[in-house]
Amino acid sequence: MEACGSAHYWARIFQAYGHEVKLIAPQFVKPFVKSNKNDAANAEAIAEAAQRPTLRFVPLKSAEQQDIQAIHRMRRQAVEQRTAQVNQIRGLLAEYGLIIPQGRAHVRPCLAAILEDAKHGLSALFRASLQGLADALRHLDERVAQYDAQIATLARASEPAQRLMTIPGISPRVATALLAAIGSDPRLLGNGRGLAAFLGLVPRQHSTGGRDRLLGISQRGDTYLRQLLIHGARAVMRWVERKTDALSRWVTALLARRHPKRLSK
């Protein structure tokens, strides 16, 4: 099957009837589509692509993995909405000469102080609107905290997640997102380099005539998961200078030669 919307659901249905299901990424199907695109041509292209001996397939997700991924997607949307809400509050207040210090942690306390202080000369209409924004921001903070608690609970209940969290820089959020992304059969990825390629963390290549030319990292795959892993690496690098273990010494030596932002990628 072509990996598209609801593909994992239908794959599990077909598996229940005894079929062996493999999902193919759309970009690997497109070269086999002849002439105009229609359902029949698409089905023929999928059948031809599936017969290629070196074709890579999309890992099939279980319902539990999709549940975890759904929580991560909802949390990410709530964080984006919260950031937009914070920026809107700061921008609106700046128009009235009221500047909130940088950092999301300052917004709610400063906004509460502004609403309580009648000396700022804000109209009753604008104060009522600000109160609505304050309530919406508090609700988004509660939603993000709720998702974080759910992710922490899922990580504690998962033995693979517990093993992943023994790796420096891997938090419950990173561990559960990684388990949700790689599918129910991680053997499809082959090895660690296959996982790195799946996440877009290996160099792009433009080689010809026996001359190897490696470019920057490909940045393919799951942007959200790659972002989490890079943040985890940056968190590790903040403390390596205070440690003397082998990993910290290795990272410190790399930091002496490369910029931290380039190294974390």
How is this structure best described in words?
This protein has 265 residues and is mainly alpha-helical. It folds into three domains: 7-50, no CATH class; 63-161; 179-264, no CATH class. 58% of the residues lie in helices and 3% in strands. It is built from twelve helices and two strands, in the order H-H-H-H-H-H-H-H-H-E-E-H-H-H. The chain has a two-stranded antiparallel ribbon. The radius of gyration is 24 Å and the shape is globular. The model has no long low-confidence stretch (mean pLDDT 86).
Q: Could you give the order of the helices and strands?
A: HHHHHHHHHEEHHH
Rg, alpha carbons: 24 Å
Secondary structure class reads mainly alpha
* Count of distinct structural domains: 3
Q: In order across it, which strands form the biggest sheet? A: 1-2
User: Low-confidence parts lasting 5 or more residues at pLDDT below 50?
Assistant: none
The total beta strand count reads 2
Shape descriptor reads: globular
pLDDT averaged residue by residue: 86
Figure out the total of helices: 12
Helical proportion?
55-70%
